[in-house]
Amino acid sequence: MTQVTIDQAMKRAVQDHEAGRLADAERIYREVLAREPNHPDALHLLGMILIQGNRSDLAIEPIRRAIAVNPAMPHYHNSLGNALSDTGLIDESIAEYRQAIQLKADYAEAYNNLGISLRAKGLFDEAAAAYRQALIIEPNYAKAHNNLGNALRDKRLLDDADAEYRLALRIDPNFAEAHRNLGGILQQRGKWQEAMESLRKAVALEPGNATLRWSYSRILLLLGHWKEGWAQFDARLKAPMFHLDRGFRQPQWDGSDPSGKTILLHAEGGHGDALTFIRFVPQVAQRGAKLILECQPGLVPLFEGMSGLNRVIPRGQPLPAFDWQIPLQSLPHVFGVTPENVPDKVPYLSAPPDRVSHWAARLAGETKLRVGLMWSGAKHTGWDNRTRSVDVFAPLAEVPGVKFFSLQKGDESREPPPQGMDWADVSAELNDFADTAALVQNLDLVISVDTSVAHLAGALAKPVWVLIPFQPDFRWLLDRTDTPWYPTMRLFRQPTQTGWQTPVEQMAQALSSLATMSGSRHDGHEPG
Q1: CA-to-CA distance for 200 and 152, rounded, in angstroms?
Q2: Sign of the C-alpha dihedral, residues 467, 180, 75, 104?
Q3: CA atoms within 13 A on the CB side of 64
């Protein structure tokens, strides 16, 4: 450093920075700061390097020092806002973006970033206003159009959001994030083929983006392109948002001969995912491996009775030695599963016999049609329309000859039944999935939203009717009332994005016919 001046060093560092040689640039910025600790540009640019390297928490301190030396620089405040936002300090980031705007009224980037932080706080109207201000300053700002689309989507203004994403892509046709977001909007609007094409373009532009590839895999699977879909589906394991990388030193099983080896099967995602994909255990066991399963604690008593498993371990407990590992949801790719060859032999699960006998005795005197009811699944996002109130099922209360049994757990289990519904709340007695399975095996029918109990009933070969959202999970495909996953399942689909009246009325009519048939049998007469 003694051979060059600080200005010369900074010029070289900026050249390295702009060329993407971040490690070299960071080294020089630090060398400059060793000579001049309060050099504002070196402090600020070091902070930007740290932000680019996903070290935003470390960027806050040098950028604050830069601002202390030169508080009138709007881009310092903007960069500090970025670091604070990345670190989750949203209120502080908003203050910094506003300070940048106060210093420079036509700072489009700061308005755009302010919108991002406001949206993160759920202030969608204020976020949209910030994005629009950025676009007044810079009409061809593709990122601001894309982000305005996000805020409009949050407000459920899907047509307006669609238009903003398309404007972003008109300005920058290679904007992968806008292609992805447009694909998401098209899915929400039921334009599945267009959505697939948008996501295909996004993946082509950013093939290393695991989150994009996962989104693409789901639309492929939904449309029945399972060979390509399963091949892309493992991208979820590398997607940062899911934190699914377990750091195993053992390789993921790829279908190679596992004879004499031990394979760890591990459940990821929700209970419904584990209940769906546990069906592949017999196929793995046939290959001659010793199988260990790690799963959610509530599923252990149910899965312990499954043939082919040598040991079942609750998630979070120490794992024994094993040679291979694979998530349950990766097994369809290994076995080349298509809609035509899904292993659909049911039941592939059964409840412990003593628990089944317990519920058989409890329900022995019940002469009405026994129907289990589940009305709410796990809440994930504001768009997760699987979650709903028991009142949605009020038309079922008008069907005579039916006794409903609440299978609902959690806070929603406290909801009172619809008026006139013959109801038994036994949810307090259902301590794990083995308890629920034992009750379900003693019912005539299960009615459920798309959640774990629906998969449980299907796995037990129990007749089960499921309300399917307009934007369905990939497992349910499109336009079908049946499913290759569960022979005893019937799907009742939401015809539009909002409203459940049509499928619930269809369900009530079907239930009335079933109750009539059941009543005839109880009276000693077969229906004609």
Answers
A1: 23
A2: negative
A3: 10
35 CB neighbour count, 10 Å cutoff: 13
The predicted model gives 451-467 an average pLDDT of 97
Q: Which two tokens stand for residue 123?
A: 């202030």
Please give the average per-residue pLDDT across 377-385, as a whole number: 58
Q: What is the DSSP letter of 245?
A: -
Residue of 58 and 496 predicted with greater confidence: 58
Tens-place pLDDT, residues 209-237: 999 999 999 999 999 999 999 999 999 99
Question: pLDDT tens digits, residue range 94-107?
Answer: 999 999 999 999 99
For CA atoms 100, 103, 105, 109, the dihedral sign is negative
Contacts 24+ apart (CB under 8 A), 54-58: 54/86, 56/82, 56/83, 56/84, 56/86, 56/87, 57/83, 57/86, 57/87
Looking at the DSSP assignment, which residues form a beta bridge with residue 312?
293
Domains and their CATH numbers in the chain: 174-237 (1.25.40.10), 262-334 (3.40.50), 353-522 (3.40.50.2000)
> Is the predicted pLDDT of residue 381 greater than 80, yes or no?
no
Q: What does the pLDDT look like over 82-97, one tens digit per residue? A: 999 999 999 999 999 9
Q: Is pLDDT of 383 > 60?
A: no
End-to-end CA distance of the chain: 97
Tokens of 137: 């300053």
DSSP structure string for 336-404: T--TTT----S------HHHHHHHHHHTTT--SEEEEEE------STT-TT---GGGGGGGGGSTTEEE
Q: Report the mean per-residue pLDDT for the chain.
A: 93
C-alpha dist (Å) from residue 302 to 58, 318, 347, 350, 407: 47, 20, 13, 7, 16
Q: Is the dihedral of CA 164, 165, 170, 172 positive or negative?
A: positive
Exposure string over 386-402, b if 16+ CB within 10 A, otherwise e: bbbebebbbbbbebebb
Task: Please answer whether residues 407 and 332 qualify as being in contact, where contact means their C-beta atoms are separated by less than 8 angstroms.
Answer: no
What 3-state DSSP class applies to 481?
coil
